[in-house]
Design brief:
alpha/beta; Rossmann fold; 17 helices; 15 strands; 41% helix
Length: 431
């Protein structure tokens, strides 16, 4: 009898939760970015919980927009993706960050508010998560949470209105900025818990009214299954594959970058560093696309740099095979005051998963590369510092570079897979 009682005491009561996840830009492998909501929701769904994703039917960061041919109820479209119930709300298309985008935001929020009764009846949430770049969705989320007697969590991707002020040069007295500030302050006051992807936000949030006992840091992560051999693809026979094999056979040190070629990626300094190392047996490989790619190619030709090579984007499933060829992996960013709150770039995590020693040219409130000793961090915007960093890593033995890469991978597997992060988030919901 005593044994039976002991066994009963050890039984953990498992409560299935209904989670309403509001994310304007939510995507999936089917539609493209933004991936974090999908991976979190999929992990929770696999744990036995039910997730309803409320998102806008148009987002500038998706590669493909959801079709309206699904099940339509009250001007919304319901779609089931990998066990997750997506509810797409009408929102007009837009370009850039002008009036069109504002109309898109407020059309989505108004559609959510109008659908309160139907959405809550369908989702029956125990937890409501307000998760998007802008903070105005907190008002709708709080309304839902009160109606459903559910827990309210505010998930912070970027600090608005600080981002448009410091990056976009908008005045703090602009009506839209004042609206964002009111929403941010409201979120910190009314949310039961706050989850931030940025690791150094404590003082900022405290200044705007947050009780720091409610703050939890849960960064971006990787999907471990995406790196299993059965889920990856080898590079096809192509100009890229042939070039990498040739450089390896010549004994060249391959310093690689895989990702977007945008202004924020600061790749012009990477190219200038290549010029300094033309006679050192180092080749620079850039794989990807973006608005700055043409300018970077023209700069390379103008400076007559012969050790920089550009290649087109490749599917995500081929990234693990591509990174096998890199001896060093490069990541950088422009100077930005917003980085004082920390960074958590997906590209960095890919490099760490691939066991690559990393050269990081980002100045931020955190330094994951230096902290985990999986590479070195140098001064951003300084071609000489970048070149010197490459030489430092090149002089290490293959065994030392491999050990660096392994430290990075071990850190990711222990701390930043979506299985780990989803469990951390679930604990916040249960508090």
């Amino acid at each position: 009898m005593q044994v039976i009682r002991q066994n009963l005491l050890e039984i953990k009561i498992f409560k299935i939760m209904n989670i309403l996840y509001i994310n304007h830009y939510a995507g999936s492998p089917k539609y493209g970015m933004e991936y974090r909501p999908y991976y979190m929701a999929k992990a929770w769904q696999q744990m036995g919980h039910r997730v309803t994703m409320a998102a806008a039917a148009f987002s500038h960061i998706r590669t493909k927009q959801p079709s309206i041919n699904g099940e339509q109820i009250n001007r919304k479209t319901i779609e089931h993706i990998d066990g997750i119930d997506y509810v797409w709300y009408p929102a007009p298309e837009y370009d850039g960050n002008g009036i069109g985008r504002l109309k898109n935001i407020f059309t989505f929020l108004w559609g959510l508010w109008r659908d309160t009764s139907n959405l809550l009846e369908t989702a029956k949430p125990d937890v409501v998560i307000a998760s998007s770049t802008y903070p105005m969705d907190i008002w709708v989320a709080h309304h839902f949470a009160k109606k459903a007697k559910a827990k309210l969590i505010f998930e912070v991707h970027d600090l608005w209105p600080l981002s448009p002020i410091e990056l976009g040069g908008m005045s703090p007295k602009h009506p839209f900025i004042m609206l964002c500030q009111a929403a941010e302050n409201y979120a910190y006051k009314h949310a039961d818990e706050v989850v931030s992807m940025l690791p150094k936000v404590h003082e900022h949030m405290k200044e705007h009214g947050l009780d720091l006992n409610k703050l939890y840091i849960i960064p971006n992560g990787v999907v471990e299954e995406d790196w299993l051999p059965e889920n990856t693809q080898a590079l096809p026979n192509s100009r890229l594959n042939d070039f990498l094999l040739e450089q390896q056979s010549l004994g060249k040190l391959i310093v690689g970058y895989a990702g977007s070629h945008g202004t924020s990626n600061a790749l012009e300094h990477f190219i200038e560093a290549a010029k300094l190392l033309e006679k050192q047996g180092v080749v620079f490989v850039l794989v990807g696309s973006g608005l700055e790619k043409k300018n970077l190619q023209e700069k390379t030709q103008y400076l007559q740099i012969n050790n920089v090579h550009f290649f087109d984007s490749i599917p995500k499933s081929q990234i693990p095979d591509l990174l096998k060829y890199f001896d060093l992996a490069y990541i950088a960013a422009q100077h930005s005051p917003l980085y004082r709150f920390g960074v958590s770039p997906n590209k960095l995590m890919d490099y760490m998963m691939a066991t690559k020693p990393i050269l990081c040219a980002i100045k931020a409130g955190n330094d994951p590369v230096g902290d985990e000793q999986c590479g070195i961090t140098v001064e951003p915007g300084n071609p000489q510092a970048i070149a010197d960093g490459i030489i430092v890593l090149a002089k290490l033995s293959k065994e030392e570079r491999l050990a660096m890469g392994q430290r990075g991978r071990e850190f990711i597997l222990k701390n930043q897979t979506y299985t780990v992060l989803a469990n951390q988030f679930l604990e916040v919901m249960k508090k």
